[in-house]
TrEMBL record:
InterPro entries in alphabetical order: Prot_inh_I16_SSI, Subtilisin_inhibitor, Subtilisin_inhibitor-like_sf
Gene Ontology CC: extracellular region
Domain of life where this protein originates: Bacteria
GO molecular function, one term: serine-type endopeptidase inhibitor activity
Subcellular location(s) of the protein: Secreted
Protein name: Subtilisin inhibitor-like
SUPFAM superfamilies associated with the record: Subtilisin inhibitor
Similarity remark: Belongs to the protease inhibitor I16 (SSI) family.
Residue ranges of domain Subtilisin inhibitor in the record: 37-120
Length: 134
């Protein structure tokens, strides 16, 4: 068992360099005229399981199983999904089954692109909460 807080320097470097410049926070970009808050969320697991949903947060809805909680998580970080830290004290097993998540859309009219790969579902949940439980 390990705590998610323990991250090697190599892992931090890999995450920092894996995201293209387009993955900058939503707050750093100009708003899209008349834009709202709507995202497409996808999850790809190394075992071949793939899923995706649409989430709207102007009026919580879409095909996400819990749009109210998902939108609340995103609101807490102002649309910058790289700042999500749901339960960093969660104890996770040292299993390796990569979970890759992506979010593409707009937050309060600003373009959003987010992508990360986590070692397993527990690590994904510790950092993103139920946002990618799709």
């Amino acid at each position: 068992m390990r705590t998610v807080k323990i991250v090697s320097a190599a892992a931090v470097f890999a995450l920092a360099t894996a995201l293209p410049p387009a993955a900058s926070p939503a707050s750093d970009r100009s708003p899209v005229p008349g834009g709202g808050s709507a995202l497409t969320l996808t999850l790809s697991v190394a075992d071949g399981t793939n899923s995706g949903v649409f989430l709207t947060c102007d009026r919580e809805g879409g095909s996400h199983p819990d749009p109210f909680t998902a939108c609340g998580l995103i609101r807490r970080v102002g649309g910058d999904l790289s700042k999500l830290a749901y339960d960093i004290d969660m104890i996770c097993p040292e299993e390796y089954l990569p979970h890759t998540v992506r979010a593409l859309g707009t937050w309060e009219g600003r373009p959003v692109w987010f992508g990360r790969t986590y070692d397993n579902r527990c690590e994904m949940t510790a950092l993103t909460g139920p946002l990618f439980h799709i």
